[in-house]
Amino acid sequence: MLRLFVMTLIAGLIALAARKMDQKLPVGIFWAANILAAVLFGLGHLPATKAIGLPLDFLVVTRAIVLNGLLGVGFGWLYWKHGLESAMLGHFTADIVLHVIWPIIVSLSIIK
């Protein structure tokens, strides 16, 4: 949803302000919109960070924004190059790896 609505809105507003609406979207505008949307994506994960019991101090907030933001930039790039479905599939795949597969690997390595 962030890519479809927020990133597209940010890119449109920047393009409108730069008077670039009649042209193909310049790469710089895409990257500016993608990075802003990725920061919002990282901020959107703060409630989950707090829910697992971490204090929302500067370091934890920065970590949440940077790590989730990096993934958000990747999902934004997928949206730009391959469409919304690709970004959604990338997000779903990352969630499965991070929340299902990785905990299984970690738990198996602790048992041995």
Describe the structure.
The chain is mainly alpha-helical and 112 residues long. The chain has helices at 2-17, 27-44, 46-51, 58-82, 84-111. The termini are far apart. 19% of the residues are buried. The model has no long low-confidence stretch (mean pLDDT 89).
Number of strands: 0
Instruction: Tell me the helix content.
Output: over 70%
Low-confidence runs of at least 5 consecutive residues:
none
What Rg is obtained from the alpha carbons, in whole angstroms?
17 Å
- Overall shape: elongated
Largest sheet: none
- Please trace the helix and strand order, writing H or E for each element: HHHHH
In short:
The protein is about 85% helix and about 0% strand.
List the helices and strands and how they pair.
Blueprint: H1 2-17, H2 27-44, H3 46-51, H4 58-82, H5 84-111
Distinctive features:
single chain, 112 residues, mainly alpha, 5 helices, elongated
